[in-house]
Write a structure and sequence with these properties.
11 strands; about 5% helix; mainly beta; about 180 residues
């Protein structure tokens, strides 16, 4: 695998690269593999602790420990009442892309507070560049919890059969980027 560390540290105008340097340049910072999962069904939870969103995960096996993994997540969520709903991105069993610890505050990747009994639906789009430093199979997934009531993925809290009550799709894509 070519890496940018085998290239000259600086370039000057008119400099001619060797064939080996050109090959290294072609191999640097490439997308080596892409894994994507689409979730078109709904998910419901009343869990007051983080729980996996079924079907919103993707596994990838990096080819080098120096590789980066770009995780891209998109989904819509809704709730049943005045509640807080929180999400976090996981690498296997480790929460990543979360806020700093501060007292008893929940460390999350994203959250939404719904109030005034207005049932709303929010859309979440994340990108996070991770450095797993492994060549073992690695699973990226999204977890969520609600502080009370019910949380929903890919549907509104009021799910009556009407054109104003959408069903949406969620997806997670992970890409190995050569370092």
């Amino acid at each position: 695998m070519a890496t940018p560390t085998t290239l000259p540290s600086t370039f000057t105008a008119g400099q001619v690269l060797t064939a080996a340097e050109m090959n290294n340049l072609r191999g640097a910072f490439r997308i080596l593999q892409v894994v994507s999962t689409n979730k078109s069904d709904t998910f419901t939870t009343t869990s007051t602790t983080f729980t996996d969103i079924t079907g919103l995960s993707a596994s990838i096996t990096p080819s080098a420990t120096s590789s980066k993994i770009l995780a891209i997540v998109s989904f819509s969520a809704s709730v049943s009442a005045d509640i807080a709903i929180m999400f976090r991105l996981m690498r296997d069993t480790t929460a990543i892309n979360i806020g700093d610890a501060a007292g008893s505050r929940t460390r999350a990747s994203a959250s939404m507070i719904f109030n005034d009994s207005i049932i709303q639906q929010g859309t979440y789009n994340w990108q996070f560049l991770d450095s797993p430093a492994t060549t073992s199979a690695t699973t990226y997934k999204v977890q969520m919890f609600v502080n009370t009531g019910t949380g929903y993925i890919n549907r509104t809290g009021l799910d009556n059969d009407a054109a104003t009550r959408p069903r949406t799709a969620a997806n997670i894509t992970v890409m190995e980027i050569s370092a």
